[in-house]
Structures are given as structure tokens and as C-alpha cells.
Specification:
single chain, alpha+beta, 14% strand, Antirestriction_ArdC, DUF1738 domain-containing protein, single-stranded DNA binding, MPTase-PolyVal, ArdC_N
Length: 294
């Protein structure tokens, strides 16, 4: 009897759906009181994971209580003179790449591929350097006062941000402006900047930037865009050491679950778009700071 073919997208999507249906989307878990704080998962060489792998490893770290940000393959650990503890289970992540193949006309064609491979958290491994076991810095508690450095970061994006007493935070697509309530109305400043990061992710979708709204314009686009903004919010805040704002309605979560069950690649698409949004924001802020220093 032939074994069923391994479905990479279905396997990872099912894992994330399970976490969401348990009441805790995996990209939220690192900031709900866990010791890990806000950090992006890191490869053995210190390079951050990207896209869907961020969500997968956040989910597993939250479920297992891992506080180390580092994830290594069996061979990477062995090369460093370390070893996986007996009985430890690996996490499945995805490698994306391209290969060149010759078509029937004799022309080279670039073909994308996705390949699964296994990694272990540093806390499953014995014998690694001490830095691999170091706990990330805890999420910042900024109180109710504005943080000058964070204000500089968000201002460097060039986004138009309005503040009024209206108790709503939103991105106005027509006016291309972000609206925020006063920072004093938030329970803490971290919540304010997390909310701002969410709206800033929406802002990246404008035609003059990543042109996301025209590319995703079907009936489910609103829920899909909210999912992108939620993940983008977390990614941006993770780079800033902030706790994101998770005040999203249950209706959105139900919509996300429905989309993921109908299309097991939906979460991959959302994670990819969120990664593009974060890359866009970081590129703009880095350029602005560099120009100001000249």
C-alpha cells in the first residue's frame, strides 16, 4: 500500500488552525504573558526566519514554552558539538527556492519550489554555547508616556497620522491617512504603538506603495487584509521589542478560520504579504534616518 503523499501546505495550515481554534492564534501567543517576550525566531547562524516559518515557530514555542529564539537542524547542532536530547520532537519548517530546468524548447526555465525540513529549538539541544540559551528581553512596559525613539521611528515612515478624540484607530484608504486616538487613552504606550503598527501595515497596501488592495479585491479581501495587518503588526513590533495590540473582534478570527479551511495556502499568502509590509516599513525608516544623518 502506497503511503499518502505529504502535503506541506495542508500540514502547516492544519497546525496553525488548531492553535487558532484553541483560542490562541500563534502570532499572538508570545505576548500573552509568556516569558519569551517579543522576538523573531532565529536560524542557527542568527539570521531571522521569514514569512510562514515565523508563525510556525512562534506557535510551537508558545505551545512548548520555549524561551530561546534559536532553531537548528540536527546537522547544525552536531557541527557545533551539541546533540538533541533523546525523545525530542522536531518542528517542520519550509525552505523556499528556485531551480532552473530546461523546457521542451531547450530554454532554461526558473521553477519555484517549497521543501520541508526539520529544526529543533535550542532548549531541546544540549551542548550549545551559552548565548543560544539566553532568554530574550521582555516586552517593554512604556507606561502612558510617549517614547521619543518610537515616535521618531513611526515619523520616519512618512505616513500621515492624525490624532483626535475620536475613540477609533483606522487607516483611511481614500485620504491615505492613519487616525489614532490620543496616547493617553490607551492603558499603556505599548498598546498605542502596537495599534499604530497595525494601521501602518494597512498603510503599506496603498497603490503608491505595495499595491495590495488592488491585488486582493474579492469579497474576502477585508478579512484577509486584517489578517495581514495583524501579522504585520506583530512582526514590526517584534523588531521594536513592543507588545502588539490584539483587540480584534471574534468575527475576524472566524473569517480567518473560514478562509484557511477553504484554502490551505491562505495563511502562507498572508504571512508573505505581512513580511513584504514589514520589509517596506524598515527600508523607509532606515533610509530616512540615513538621510537625516548626512
Amino acid at each position: 500500500m502506497t503511503a499518502p503523499k505529504f502535503d506541506l501546505h495542508a500540514t502547516i495550515t492544519a497546525q496553525i488552525i488548531e492553535a487558532m481554534e484553541a483560542g490562541c492564534p500563534p502570532w499572538r501567543k508570545p505576548w500573552t504573558g509568556g516569558e519569551a517576550g517579543a522576538c523573531l525566531p532565529l536560524r542557527g547562524n542568527g539570521e531571522p526566519y521569514r514569512g510562514i516559518n515565523v508563525l510556525v515557530l512562534w506557535s510551537i514555542a508558545a505551545a512548548k514554552g520555549y524561551t530561546s529564539a534559536h532553531w537548528l537542524t540536527f546537522n547544525q547542532a552536531k557541527t557545533m558539538g551539541a546533540h538533541i536530547r533523546r525523545g525530542e520532537k522536531a518542528a517542520t519548517v519550509v525552505k523556499f527556492g528556485t531551480v532552473e530546468k530546461e523546457d521542451e524548447n531547450g530554454e532554461d526555465k526558473v521553477i519555484p519550489f517549497a521543501k520541508a525540513y526539520s529544526v529543533f529549538n535550542a532548549e531541546q539541544i544540549e551542548g550549545l554555547p551559552a548565548d543560544f540559551y539566553r532568554k530574550p528581553e521582555p516586552a517593554q512596559d512604556l507606561g502612558t508616556e510617549a517614547d521619543p525613539a518610537l515616535d521618531v521611528f513611526f515619523a520616519a515612515t512618512g505616513a500621515a497620522i492624525d490624532t483626535t478624540s475620536q475613540p477609533r484607530a483606522f487607516y483611511d484608504i481614500t485620504a491615505d491617512r492613519i487616525h489614532m486616538p490620543p496616547i493617553g487613552t490607551f492603558k499603556d504606550a505599548a498598546g498605542y504603538y502596537g495599534t499604530l503598527a497595525h494601521e501602518l501595515t494597512h498603510w503599506t497596501g496603498a497603490t503608491s506603495r505595495l499595491d495590495r488592495f488592488t491585488r486582493f479585491g474579492d469579497r474576502k479581501a477585508y478579512a484577509f487584509e486584517e489578517l495581514i495587518a495583524e501579522i504585520g503588526n506583530c512582526m514590526i513590533c517584534a523588531t521594536l521589542g513592543l507588545t502588539p495590540d490584539f483587540a480584534q473582534s471574534g468575527a475576524y478570527i472566524e473569517g480567518w478560520l473560514g478562509a484557511m479551511k477553504e484554502d490551505n495556502r491562505a495563511i502562507f499568502k498572508a504571512a508573505s504579504e505581512a513580511q513584504k509590509a514589514m520589509d517596506f516599513v524598515l527600508a523607509i525608516t532606515e533610509n530616512s534616518v540615513a538621510m537625516a544623518a548626512e
